[in-house]
Each structure stands twice: as C-alpha cells, then as structure tokens.
C-alpha cells in the first residue's frame, strides 16, 4: 500500500510539472494558469497563500471581465477533468476563498456561469484509488453541495451574509445584528427558508470515517465553520423578527411562519451536535464555539392556535368595489324588466309641475296604471316635490327587489327589511374579529418570557 501511494504521489507531481510547462509555453494567461495548477496540485496540503493572491488579483475589478471569465473556465476545467480527491478538494477551496475574500466581480461572473454549467454538482465524483479515498470523495461531494447552496442563497437574498452586519444603536461597531432583523414579513418568509436550507447543507458537511482526521479536510471544514456563525446569527435574528410580526400575519403567511419556527428549533439542536463533533478536531483550537439554545417549543402551540383564527388575505380594494359591482349587475336586470321607463320619466315631471291642489277624475285616469307602477327613474322619489305615499311604496318595491308582478307590495317591503342586500353581507363578512386582546396578551407574554432566550 505504501509503495502504491508513493507511486501515485510521483505520478501526480509529474502531471503537475507537465501542466505547468505547457501553460508557460502555450497559454496567453500563463501566470494565472500556473497559479491555478500550483494552488490545486496533487500535494496533500492546503493551497499556498501566494498562489491564492495571484488568483485573487487576476479576478479583481481592475482586470478585464474576459480575464475573470477565463479564470472561472480554468477552475471549472480543472474540476471537471480530475478524478483525484486532493485536486478536487483544493479546487473547491480556491473557489470558496474567492467567494469569501475575492472581489465581487468574481461572484458576479460566477453566478451566471454556474446556472449554465453545474460545475459544483459532483454527485458522480469518486476517487477509486483506495478505500480511504472513498471517504474523502464523499466529503468532497458534500462540500460541493454546500458551495452550490451558498450561491443559491445569494440569488435569493441579493446580498452577502459575510459583509452585511448592521451596528446596534448606542453600541460599538463590533456589536451588530443581521439584516433579517429589519425585514418585512414578505421578505422574511422568502429569505429565512433559503438561509435554513444553507444551514442544512452546512450541517451535512460533518466528516466521517478517514476524512474526520485528515488535515486538508479539516482546513476546508474550518472555512465552513466560519460561515456557520453568521448564518446562524442571521436565522436567529430573523426568528426574533418573525415572532414580533407573527400575530399580524394573515393565515397563509402564518402557516409558513410556523414551519420556519419549527425547523429553526430542529436545526439549533443539529448545529449544536455538529459543533460538539468538531470540538475534538485539531482545527477547534482556533475557534470559540457559541452555546446555542433552541427556540422555546411551547410557543408552537400558541402559534398554531393563532393560525386557526388568523384572518385570510383579502385585497383592500375588494370591499370598496363590491357594492359598485353589484350595482352594475343590478341595473341591466332592472332595465330588462322595465323596458319603457324613459318616456314615462319624461312625462311624470311635467304632470307634477302643473299646480293642481285637487286632482280631478280625468287627471287621475289619464295616465295608464301599469307604466306608472314601473317608473324607476327616481328610486327614492327625490325629484318629486310632493310624492304620494302609494307611489313611493310601489316604486321602492320595484327598485329593491325583483319579484313577479303578482306579489303584494306589503309583502315585498317586509321581505326587504328582513333580508339584507349582498353588499351589506359583504361588508359584515369583511369585518375582522375585534376580540384580539388574548392574542396581544399572549404575544407580550411570549416576548418577555421566551424570546430573550434566543442567542443574539
């Protein structure tokens, strides 16, 4: 076995030197190609800083975008062609360092490239050189999934968690909170699941088997642990913000908030176990692991009770447009049942304007009775200076209810008094429940008793 390993090391060194010689002769970007090959060689040590600095300088904002694109293609080609776990892992480390410490220009070019070419999906990667290399290959695949999820989280958040720390008022700049503490409900429900998915991939980076004691694996794991601190802080600040806004959410948002809160409690326990497994590693000498506390699970029952009575989302303009819409649908129906109101409306004001203190029998018999009943020109009779009581009742019966002609007007008036119209029902149904005192008291109690337990 030792002879085979020695042969593999010699073969890897020969391939590296050959690749460097070809880059010096044939490449237009020979300095960058040489730096990439030497930073990702077959030697089982972390990439040297001097090679990383050359790669970072080649992807800075001062260089043309063509140089940045060439660097991305060179790293992708290096990762796609290799079947050695050392080269693959060191290439992922270089990409991770460029995302963390490099210029934002690299990330701006790398994001669209990974959407076209999934270079970080290494589900088929496997080093068959030895059984020990299988454990290393498994961790390389997991590490690649974490980096891909990191890019996906950036697409959702539109900012880098590593750089976004806001200072608290009245405290020093070292004290701060994440941007998730100040988000509105819609952005909060969109960003928290992305952060939780990223934390899920991070917790999955726990090394197993031979990879648990490998120094190169622990070097990459240290970069992952640095990411975990700020990811957890962003989730924790977001949960505090979520609890503060929960009792004002409609039902569909409250359901999402309950799932997010429940998953936050589960991930806090999983992250504590992940930290506990890393404490025994050599890299733990340079880290101070925080003490995590799970969010109070008793609050979930309170959230579920609120969901049962939470209001549903209704557009603000809907109650205002509803009566208008009912009137628009009502007027054509009225016009269909009374097709001849227009000429009668024109004749009626002329008959009213004539001063007649005592109407004669000829004046009463002159207008036909049926057209006078179907007069809907003025539903309330406001244009009549002295309307009779019977005319008002007959016109109201026709205006407020569409009924057969044989129905008595007195029965119609009684039915309209007992049966409210559609827009009145809509306004009553849209009125929210005013009994919100228990929920407000519950929220104040939860904020005082439990939220203080969260790690800030």
From TrEMBL:
One of its GO terms (cellular component) is Golgi apparatus. Pfam families: ANTH (PF07651). GO terms for biological process: clathrin-dependent endocytosis. InterPro entries: ANTH_dom, ANTH_dom_sf, ANTH_N_plant, AP180-like, ENTH, ENTH_VHS. Residues 348-388 are annotated as: Disordered. Its main location: cytoplasm. Residues 24-161 form the ENTH domain. One of its GO terms (molecular function) is SNARE binding. Keywords: Coated pit, Cytoplasmic vesicle, Endocytosis, Golgi apparatus, Membrane. It is found in: Cytoplasmic vesicle, Clathrin-coated vesicle; Golgi apparatus; Membrane, Clathrin-coated pit. This is ENTH domain-containing protein. It comes from Urochloa decumbens. The lineage of its organism: Eukaryota, Viridiplantae, Streptophyta, Embryophyta, Tracheophyta.
